[in-house]
Amino acid sequence: MANVYLGLGTNLGDKASNLHQAIGRIRERIGEVISQSHFYETAPWGFDSANTFLNAALCVNTACPPLEVLHLTQAIERQMGRKQKSANGIYADRIIDIDLLLYDDVILQTPELTLPHPLMTERDFVMRPLTEIAGHVVHPVFRQSLASLQASRKPL
Questions:
Q1: CATH class of 2-151
Q2: Would 34 disulfide with which of 8, 59, 78, 115, CB 3.0-4.6 Å?
Q3: Cα angle at 16 between 80 and 4, to 5 degrees?
Q4: Predicted structure pTM score
Q5: Any idea of the CA torsion for 27, 30, 36, 39, to the nearest 10 degrees?
Q6: Domain residue spans in the chain?
Q7: Cβ distance 15 to 54 under 8 Å?
């Protein structure tokens, strides 16, 4: 069994309901939700939109390997109405976004998945909820706790 940390975000429709629905599906398909952050309202990152985001982080205990978790989260996104993932730095409004942030202390780089998530420490909307539930966790590349990495971030 492994602990996988997921970042969730939504900026369309009933945002709280979208997050609750995604969390329920994650629980059903991926594993037991060990911890969940509060929901954070945040501004869009990387693109302009009139719609604010609602973000959260989860720790899920799973028997699924990393690529299977990726495929399951992508299936949940599609089932909830997400048409396509962001690509090449082009972001858009979305009903749900589920990112794999950490999978235990695994370091992985494939064409399909990079762990830890390469942009997670640059994004306050990821680090705030993640630090809430996993501040003690050590980032496997930077070898610092998430709380320490968050504290050293430059304010946006």
A1: alpha beta
A2: 59
A3: 70
A4: 0.92
A5: -80
A6: 2-151
A7: yes
